[in-house]
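Structure first, sequence second, as always.
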């Protein structure tokens, strides 16, 4: 009898583990549809996000977390033009994508940001405390992800935001 109980407990643990794995890796994700403003970069002059020309766009997002956004695309715009026109971001850190979204390799993108890829501010505070970062390579490949900004780090830790942060929306308080 004790063996039956142990086997049932192990089977339940395996099933629940499988469900948890599925929810973390596959559930909640949806494909992001290509639109005219699928990729935006923040202008140096206006401080506002502006759409850029992209093709071969693939994107995913999930309602379960604002950090699950990832996108891959190509652009014909040169890095030289982009660096003169749009805000560059230092210390960008791509977030790991699910293994099945194989166009996005966070480790490689992170390494390339130290050599030839350049990170730009896509949309600041796309959701309070979360910025959309866009990395573009010299050959036109591009990748986008969401990253917690300085205001988000402070507020999400339960502290008051610094004076230079935007007001906290009521839904986050």
């Amino acid at each position: 009898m004790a063996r039956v109980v142990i086997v049932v407990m192990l089977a339940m643990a395996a099933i629940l583990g499988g469900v948890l794995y599925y929810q973390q890796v596959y559930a909640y994700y949806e494909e992001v549809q290509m639109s005219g403003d699928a990729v935006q970069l923040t202008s140096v002059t206006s401080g506002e996000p502006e759409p850029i020309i992209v093709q071969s766009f693939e994107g995913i997002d999930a309602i379960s977390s604002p950090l699950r956004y990832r996108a891959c695309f190509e652009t014909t715009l040169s890095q030289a033009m982009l660096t003169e026109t749009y805000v560059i971001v230092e210390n960008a850190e791509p977030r790991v994508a699910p293994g099945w979204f194989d166009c996005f390799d966070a480790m490689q993108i992170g390494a390339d940001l130290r050599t030839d890829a350049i990170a730009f501010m896509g949309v600041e505070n796309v959701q309070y405390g979360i910025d959309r970062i866009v990395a573009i390579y010299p050959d036109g490949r591009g990748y986008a992800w969401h990253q917690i900004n300085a205001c988000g780090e402070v507020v999400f830790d339960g502290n008051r935001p610094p004076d230079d942060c935007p007001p906290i929306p009521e839904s986050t308080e």
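Margin note: DSSP finds four helices and eight strands in the chain.
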